[in-house]
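histidine kinase
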Amino acid sequence: MQSGSMLESALLKTHFDVIPFGIYVVDVATYEVVFLNRHSRENLGPAEGGKCYKVVYDNDAPCLHCRIPELLTPDGLPNGRTAVYDLYNERDERWAQIQEKAMGWPDGRVVKYAIAVDISELKETQNRLAEAHAELAIRNKDLAGQNTLLRQNMDLREHVDRIARHDLKAPLSALIGLPQVLLENYDLPPEAAHIVSLMEQAAHSMLDMLNQSLVLYRLETGDFVLSPRPVDLVDLAMRTCSRLSSMPMARGRKLHAALAGGPVPAGARVEVPGDDLLLGPMLQNLVVNGLEASPEGGDVEVDVVVGEENVALVVRNQGEVPAAIRDRMFDKYVTLGKRSGTGLGAYSAALAAKAHGGTIELDAGVPGRTAVIVTLPRGGAAL
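Tokens:
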């Protein structure tokens, strides 16, 4: 009988020895270490006979986390339950997942065997993930606060802009009315009358730009809703050329409108559905850019080209856009070589084109020349 018990014990120990995790067996009555497998002996040394709490955890008394009572019946026999838990061992500063169960040992004693799997790297990864999640939560909270502050600042800017527009409109309305008074009540020479008319047009243009500033803000924020009405692009091109021809930037340069590359016939019209308060400043910004880029004696053309489904507004001028900004020309604040340039003219033109369901592109394929092409969905007919 004793030889059979010894054989059973040897087989059990051999089985435990081949398992690549730490395994130790403890007498549940005395806490004596009955057996250590090879993996545990390499870490703990030959510690059979010592107290498990001292050998494994370097404690002087039974561990507070001891699960032996949970594994026994009231009579002190194995109850078949398995305890599984994670534990940090201060002795070697490692984490382990422990699996424990009570059983009968070949010599008749009731023992507890414990399998300890090192999960320190897993715990470290979990801790890093937890820290990353905590940091992300903090950043998200900070970002939410910044977004709220940004929204408040944007609302404040819109409110201030609205007040500024209101305060500027009163004196501007008087400036618009005065030229008409001069024209109707004074016998002005033709040249002076022309200058006064240009002043009135410039004042109207300024009023339109004031009204447009809120529209551009809404375009940037995605709050703008287009309410299209027929806009005659031929008339728009001719009015823009007439108004800007008298400006200092146009001196020494030729500025004219065209229809499909040729002269504009009397009464010609090309209508698209759009907003004149957007399309007018859009074209003006592009023509101003063309005039500023064109050398003295150069020619700037605003060409209306009608296609089957779209109408193109093409602003052509001599001079080239610097290669360094060609790919970013329609981005915000992009400018190069212009003393008073803000980098907003082409950007706002792109916003206006997009709001109409159109596109804007730069054609720098001809050396020494530049063309900006705005393509808008066609909604009318050329007459």
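The CA atoms of residues 183 and 193 lie 7 Å apart.
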